[in-house]
Amino acid sequence: MAAVDALLLSMFFAALHKHSGILQLVIALVGVIANYVYFSKRTMPFKFLLPGLILLVLFVVIPVVYTVEMSFFNYQSGNIISKDGAITQLINDGLTPDAANTSYDMVLGSDNGKFTALLTNPVTHISYIANESSVTTLAPGEFTADSKGDAVGAPGFKAYTPDQEANLDAQITAAKFPLPNGGFIQPQDTSTAALLTQSVQYDKATGLLKNSATGKTYKDNGNGNFANVNNPKDVLYPGWKAFSKFQNYAHLLTDSNIRGPFIGVFIWTFVFASVTVILMFGFGLLLAIALEQDLRFKRFYRSIVILPYAIPSFMSILIWKGMFNTQFGAVNALFHSHIDFFDSPWLARGMVLIVNLWLGLPYFYLISTGALQAIPGDLEEAAEMDGATSTQILRRIKLPLLLQILAPLLISSFAFNFNNFNLIYLLTGGGPTDVLHGQTAGATDILITYTYKTAFNGANQNYGSASAISMLIFIIVASLSRIGHGELMTTQAVARRKHKISRGHLLSHAYIWVLIIFILFPIYVVIESSFNPTGVLTSGSFIPTQFSWANYHELFSDPHVPFTRWILNSIVLATANAVIAVFIGGASAFAFSRMKFRGRKIGLQALLLVQVFPSFLALAAIYVMMERVYTVFPAIGLGSLGGLLLIYLGGAMGVNIWLLRGYIDTIPMELDEAARIDGASTPQVYWLIFFPLAAPVLAVTALLAFIGTFNEFILASIFLTDVNRRTVAVGLNSFVGAQFGQNWGPFAAGSLIASIPLVILFLSLQRFIIGGLTQGATKG
Q: Which residues pair with 186 in a beta bridge?
């Protein structure tokens, strides 16, 4: 605790030095709570819970609360700062040069500790001494002049050195020397100043802003702007962040510019998520049924069909994007066509569904396999004795039981695809969008991508409206997850059994090979393209005609492409997240499973709620928070790997605790009692008994955390702007983005290199993952 206290104390004084009151309060609270918990004998459960709770509160709860708050404010481009800041800026913008464009030669310095300037009018040769209280004319003999007659010295005046001027840049910029007639002399740089007149005046008593140059008067319109009293549509910018009640929510239905796109996006989001789940479940179930038979090459088939689950999803999506390219895409080359899939709304939607099927098929195959193995064999035997056919058994017995067992996972998958940002953003960007007719949402935009565009794209970044849409998404997803949780509570565990080998092996082989070709096609294309020096995903022939290591050489030799650094950043970030998530999540799960304390039941319900609020939904809030943290602690603020790690940890903490707790609940209580009889303390029980016994699920948690972090794209792309701090996902995307052009060769080579460790890890530990998914599908 001494090291923790020292760190918190140094952070507190750093925040104090930067005048950040909110950060000071947060650091002080964390320090006080941590010392009370770890030095008190009555807080044993919270010794295990506190690290996880701090991450949850700071990076999930607070962003959620901040998102809720922002949804009730007019908070957009032009309405970001405070009202006082807006008034100050409007007044400053009202400073205009006088009619003669009077300027002064200037020497800056100090006089009796005051910021002072010696000014000389080069036209009249009159000199002045000025500070922020007054401007006084200097008579001949009261100052020292240079060869041009400009004042350069005076009694008590000490001129600044160039180094001093460099350190006073902010003060020089903000300085104003007031004149008796209401004007100002304001420095323009370190050696010249200009005479400005103040055309904008603010009356605190009446709250009115008056422009003497135009004769207009403005008042607070109650929505974060000063508006012309005679023309309310004539508003001044900048405005300020202002409370707008339910206006952001009302605009979703009343503002035609928002309502039209929003309703269309809302409908497509439901259709996309529903059709996706139906397709994935159907194809995955048929694959599981086919591979349930006693087929030759079954192990080979299983290894192939789960490959999309092991390959980083961002790479797969971008590869598919290149394959659908009109001129050089593999799909058009295969069919000798020139179809523009990205320009037609329905073709783009079909493309999205096909790619998502490729990505999700392995998952649904795995959970369907686990569910099929959980159906009692005597049900099928009894049906066969009654003369039921295989089709009737599947339709009337297996399918109803499968839907009951898999209902929570189907609903969870629907909720996931409801927010499937990466797929839409990377594949189509939400397009096609008919910008010529004023459309703001594309044909494939779903609510989460529409939220992103509202908050971060375009000239008008509307954080308030984006937060309102985020809350609507959260309500929908939370309701669906609550339904899924209810189904999970009523689903009973059923015994495993062996299925009888069915006929129709030839048909099963044919179906499996169709899916294998579907799965391997993009993998073959990316392998072929990695050795193709032309930089496209296909050369028009699927039989390689050129072989070159140039793309691999470029990755490691181009000084503008720090590929090795990107890989290292991803590995360090993913490893740190996996290790910390296991230790903190395991300790918290142990407390929830084995200890009784006040608030335990409410805490579990809160975990269920926060785990359905993805960190991306609070992206606007997190961005603003981390931007403020950066001003005090750059190492964990916006643009840092440390800050991104904290966001990852907080966002996944609820899921990790819930998963680990479910496993720990299955460990017999007798082990606790025996250890305590032998004199073991609570920490010893955890470290010596539960930690080793929970090793399988801890390994699964660590592996999934590693893969999830390694794959993550959107948060990393927003938070990491420095090219040397990018992860491999963000870095490789630059090859097919604006920075490096559409250079698919190095992207393909980099994708293969980045996929190798993940594929090896996944294939080595797939039995743990399959076991975990099977257990999740069949146990309540």
A: 194
Sign of the torsion angle spanned by Cα atoms 394, 397, 401, 403: positive
462 secondary structure, DSSP code: B
Distance CA 610, CA 654 (A): 7
399-421 as b/e: b if 16+ CB within 10 A = eebbeebbbbbbbbbbbbbbbbb
Residue with tokens 């995955």: 284
Check if the beta carbon of residue 186 is closer than 8 Å to that of residue 194.
yes
Encoded tokens for 513? 């090979």
Q: In this structure, what are the phi and psi dihedrals at residue 271, rounded to the nearest 5 degrees?
A: -65, -45
Q: What is the DSSP string of 179-210?
A: -TTS-EEEESSSSEEEEEEE-EEEETTTTEEE
Distance CA 37, CA 284 (A): 48
Amino acid at 157: F
Query: How far is residue 419 from each of residues 121, 401, 424, 615, measured CA to CA in Å?
Result: 64, 28, 10, 11
Place of tokens 């990316």: 526
Contact 371, 405 (CB under 8 A): yes
Using one digit for the tens of pLDDT, what is the confidence trace for 598-619?
Answer: 888 888 777 767 666 655 667 7
Angle, vertex CA 642, rays to CA 468 and CA 609, nearest 5: 40
pLDDT at 94 over 50: yes
The DSSP 8-state label assigned to residue 626 in this structure reads: H
Tell me which DSSP letter residue 121 carries. -
- The 8-class DSSP code of residue 611 comes to T
- Which amino acid is residue 358, in one-letter code? W
Task: Give the 3-state secondary structure of residue 333.
Answer: helix
Contacts of 538 (CB under 8 A, 6+ apart): 323, 328, 329, 330, 333, 525, 528, 529
- Which residues does 170 contact at the CB level (< 8 Å), separation at least 6? none
Residue 608 dihedral angles phi and psi, to the nearest 5°: -60, -35
**pLDDT at residue 138, rounded to an integer:** 93
What residue has token string 């500790």?
Answer: 113
130: part of which helix (H) or strand (E)? strand 127-131
Element (DSSP H or E) covering residue 109: strand 103-111
* One-character DSSP codes across 14-56: HHHHTT-HHHHHHHHHHHHHHHHHHH-TT-HHHHHHHHHHHHH
pLDDT at 780: 37
The CA-based dihedral angle spanning residues 609, 612, 614, 618, taken in that order and rounded to the nearest 10 degrees: -40
- Reported for 627-633, long-range contacts at CB under 8 A and 24+ positions apart, including other chains, are 628/20, 628/22, 628/23, 629/23, 631/18, 631/20, 632/14, 632/15, 632/18, 632/20, 632/23, 633/11, 633/14
Q: What is the token pair recorded at 170? A: 């902010």
Note the residue count of the chain: 780
Radius of gyration of the chain (CA): 33
Q: 194 forms bridges with which residues in the sheet?
A: 103, 186
Q: How confident is the model at residue 715 (pLDDT cuts 50, 70, 90)?
A: confident
Q: Which helix (H) or strand (E) holds 152?
A: strand 151-153
With a cut of 70, say whether residue 539 has pLDDT above it: no
